[in-house]
Automatic annotation (TrEMBL):
Residues 1-22, 138-162 are annotated as: Disordered. GO terms for molecular function: nucleic acid binding; zinc ion binding. SUPFAM superfamilies: beta-beta-alpha zinc fingers (SSF57667). Coiled coil: none annotated. It holds the Pfam family zf-C2H2_jaz. Signal peptide: none annotated. Residues 138-152 have a biased composition (Basic residues). Residues 59-93 form the U1-type domain. This is U4/U6 X U5 tri-snRNP complex subunit Snu23. The gene is snu23. One of its GO terms (biological process) is mRNA splicing, via spliceosome. Keywords: Metal-binding, Nucleus, Zinc, Zinc-finger. It comes from the Eukaryota. SMART domains: ZnF_U1 (SM00451). It comes from Schizosaccharomyces japonicus (strain yFS275 / FY16936).
């Protein structure tokens, strides 16, 4: 029994100490690059029948190299990119940078200038004038529609009377496709 006790204390003493990585953490911010979901469009990949979400990139789908995991669809992959697990593996801190006083003043000045300057398409308008213009436009459209309908009906009547003598047509029995009942 005494030897076991010595053995356990010996292994505890000789166990390597856990060292932390000296890499710096990145601060999370707005994405500067676009995630291109369309890069694999129209590409054919043969997936084995038993493929599912798994590890080591052995299945079909979106693969995260940092976490060594594969995801079936882009939505779950994007959720993974924002997950605590992925951010921890990529050494990303989930906190914002503190803005300096100069940055705050610069941003306030930017918003002041933006509010003072007239923006494109923000011309003053009168609501009554816009409503009147709308009704006028609708009236023009209605008149145009009536005119087109009238032209179409005139065109069909002109085709019916396409140079055939009405007496000859009635003798031959070509009086139209109307009802024979009176």
């Amino acid at each position: 029994m005494g030897t076991e006790k010595k053995l356990t204390t010996h292994t505890q003493a000789s166990a390597p100490s856990v060292k932390r990585s000296t890499r710096q953490f990145k601060v999370v911010g707005a994405r500067t690059e676009r995630i291109d979901f369309t890069k694999d469009v129209n590409k054919v990949t043969i997936a084995p029948p038993g493929s599912s979400v798994g590890r080591r990139g052995k299945s079909a789908g979106w693969y995260c190299e940092a976490c060594d995991e594969t995801y079936r669809d882009s939505l779950s992959w994007l959720d993974h990119l924002n997950s605590a697990q992925h951010l921890r593996k990529t050494r990303t801190v989930i906190s914002d940078e503190r803005a300096t006083v100069d940055q705050v003043r610069e941003r306030i000045e930017y918003w002041k200038n933006l509010l003072k300057s007239p923006q494109e398409g923000s011309a003053e308008y009168d609501l009554k004038a816009r409503v009147a213009a709308y009704h006028k436009q609708r009236q023009k459209e209605k008149e145009l529609k009536k005119l087109r309908k009238k032209q179409r009906s005139n065109a069909t009547h002109a085709v019916d009377d396409a140079g055939i003598d009405p007496q000859l047509a009635s003798v031959m029995g070509i009086t139209g496709f109307g009802s024979t009942k009176t």
